[in-house]
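thread: overnight batch results

M.L. [08:02]
morning all. the overnight job finished for the chain we discussed friday. pasting input first so we're all looking at the same thing
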Amino acid sequence: MNNREQIMIHVKKDEEIFTTPAKPKVPQGGALEWKVAGGGYHFALNLGYNSPCELEEEPYHAEPGGSITANVRSDAPFDEYKYTIAVFKDGEFLIEDPRFIVRR
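M.L. [08:03]
and the structure it wrote out:
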């Protein structure tokens, strides 16, 4: 069983961003990894105060082509969690507030 869920951040031409899968599901003790599709942008991640995740390493941002990985605690409550992504494009920040699910 794969306990790592890769989340791709897509930047649309009309200055919007979205993630795939839209609402990933990860088990307790699993991991989430974020990357920008095409890899051409800086991005940052805010998991929030109630996050069941711990980042593998700081900082909470990635250079173009980089990624951010967060490990889900093994005792994380089964629930849906909101987080924030910011992508830096053409001198502006594009913001999205997607969600992920900690599953059984």
